[in-house]
Design goal:
By secondary structure, this protein is an alpha+beta fold. The chain contains nine helices and twelve strands. A hairpin with a 5-residue loop joins β11 and β12.
């Protein structure tokens, strides 16, 4: 069954066909099959989490934001920097122009990006209204208590465990995946919504609770003010798709590094994780190249 789901997703331009059962909660199937693993010497022991299913946040109003967006009355902070990356615009590779005529949006090829350059970071990014750190050496007091994966990440003081976290976003009969790369809209302390069950506390922009990038907007056919369902997912639950087409590994200073180069055994956990993600990508690409007749045996 898993094989057929994976092949179906690939054959339909990465779109995932889903249904909505009684009660309105989306039934979005996430592949969680076996993945290749790097040698055990590469990874410090971490509690397994690939089977974790986080709760859906339902009927959340979205707004669209983009890297390089200038400050306006409705966007008081320019997006040349993010909450976690002082060189976000440069590290991304340029202005993530939201104008549809200046973008590529093709479900068949999986191209969702600006026409003028190839992004160096994942163009499928989002912002949520919480920041887990207050400085380069300090977390917020509630972070270790309210963030579900905090304990098993074992971060250094001031090391964000939210940056780069994967979300699944559902709209209509299609879902996509994106990474948490900035904080907002409007506030950065709303942990009761992000990790709890309360609605967003901000009232601006229709009580918006999720900022999405132009690539997410184009993939799902959305516009600011629309509503989606979203939830956190583990990296191992994210299938290969347009959200993994671009972007390379980052080191601690957020500079791109070669994702195909095996890190040394004493590399930091984030570098090891990125390398394992690269291996998973190679595996998924080879898997989807196989003919259906071979996969069914």
């Amino acid at each position: 069954m898993l094989v057929l789901l994976l092949v179906g997703a690939a054959g339909s331009g990465y779109a995932q066909s889903t249904g909505t059962p009684q009660g309105g909660v989306p039934r979005v199937l996430v592949p969680t099959g076996s993945r290749p693993t790097a040698p055990s010497t590469l990874v410090r022991p971490v509690a397994p989490a690939s089977g974790v299913l986080y709760p859906w946040r339902l009927h959340v109003t979205i707004t669209v934001f983009w890297i390089g967006e200038q400050a306006t009355d409705r966007n008081p902070v320019a997006n040349r920097k993010s909450s976690w990356d002082q060189n976000w615009l440069a590290n991304y590779g340029g202005y993530d122009d939201p104008e549809p005529t200046n973008r590529i949006a093709n479900h068949t090829t999986g191209e969702f990006r600006p026409k003028t350059f190839v992004p160096k970071l994942n163009p499928f990014y989002v912002a949520l209204p919480y920041n887990d750190v207050v400085s380069s050496n300090q977390h917020k007091t509630e972070a270790s208590r309210v963030i579900p994966w905090f304990a098993r990440m074992r971060p250094e003081p001031g090391e964000s465990v939210c940056r780069g976290r994967w979300l699944q976003i559902y709209n209509g009969r299609r879902s996509c995946y994106a990474q948490w790369e900035d904080c907002g809209p409007w506030v950065t302390d709303d942990w009761e919504y992000v990790f709890g069950s309360k609605p967003p506390k901000t009232t601006q922009n229709g009580a918006a609770g999720l900022d999405i990038s132009p690539a997410v907007r184009d993939f799902l056919g959305l516009a600011s003010g629309k509503k989606v369902h979203w939830r956190f997912v583990e990296a191992a639950q994210v299938p290969y798709g347009p959200w993994k087409k671009y972007g390379s590994a980052r080191n601690d200073s957020s500079q791109p590094v070669n994702p195909g180069q095996r890190p040394p055994d004493d590399a930091d956990l984030e570098t090891q994780r990125r390398y394992m993600e690269y291996l998973r990508k190679l595996r998924d690409e080879e898997y989807l190249k196989k003919p259906l007749s071979e996969l069914q045996h």
